[in-house]
Amino acid sequence: MACKLKLTESNNLYKEACRLIPGGVLGIRRPYNFVVGEYPVFFASAKGGRVIDADGNEYIDMLCAYGPIIIGHREEEIDEAVIEQIREKGFCFSLTQKTQNKLAKKMRELIPCAEKSLFVKTGSDAATAAIRIARAYTSRSKVARCGYHGWHDWCVEVKAGIPQKLYEDVYEFHYNDLTSLEAIMSKHGSETAAIIITPIGHPLSAKVEEPAPGFLKGVKEIAERYGAVLIFDEIRSGFRVSLGGAQEIYGVIPDLALFGKAMGNGYPISAVVGKAEIMDVAKDKVFISSTFFPNSLGQIAALKTIEIMERDNILTKLREKGSKFCAEVEEIIGAGGIPCELSGAPLMPFITFIKDKEKRYKELRNEFYTQLIRRGLFLQPYHHGYIAYRHTDEDLKRAAAAIAESLEELKKTAY
Questions:
Q1: Has residue 347 been placed in a domain?
Q2: Domain check: are 51 and 169 in the same one?
Q3: CB 127 within 8 A of CB 150
């Protein structure tokens, strides 16, 4: 059996952080989102597909900073492009640098719906800007949503501190369920500004879902019928399933789309892209501004990331790596006899445990991810993982072995 990790320094840093910062660390990085006492709370460094915690423990990093790391940590070519910008030109000005235009041209070239682009910093920024644009364009207020769209008032799941009036016009429908969307739109369609959806379903702690045949097309038809703006939230799928996003893969083109995470390989940048007629309400009707939105470092990182991905055929190689890894994991799960399943193959793998009336699946999940971290594989119990280009064949072989050994441990302790 693998031994419990030494986490003395990480735990000490967390105790110190709790005296300085509410909760010690922010949101999804808090210990209760992993396995308390088994996972580190602080990392020290990373390179390629590996990460090292504050105590010197090394892991194969398959959480990839929750998605931004698509090539690898400390990717020298990207970092050097950013460093050159800092040294030679600077990046924070009262006016905008020409990198904005260069990146917008590239987005138009790659993404089917991207006639115009608007650059911000986070996925939440992009989602909220897109909703504001849609509401201004349609002169309507209601929104139908499906998926996670960030932490801002209109969409965050935890409602403490938010007046009801700020989200009372937002209605949730279910992924791969057109009936639930039809029910909302039959009641509120004439007042609905936008339908926003993650084109690939990735609900918290549940398996990753691809769209059923005709689902995305059906969502688009409903949006068109009621005159609502269709928004694809591609913060996770964009630049990962395809440089053109899931919309390119599935052939359903939205009015607006959100891109981020893998766009800059870890540098903070996101974008709203879409049809010029809709985007143009942001010329003067809608106000979107920030001191830091025009900073060029994220734009430089995005341009270099895209350049490398095109030049080195990164996504094809990622699919090859992920397909091989996931096929091995499927075989391991099939032979293991533990009630769990793999979804999200080949690029966003997630092992989830099948729910039972006694809720023993929670114990199985907890023990499984405990065994994984002890074997040096960094994943998250409630969130799918990712494949990065710098994950070597040896990394993925070790990851599969860790999964096999962890499932074997579950047999000993749970059955």
A1: yes
A2: no
A3: yes
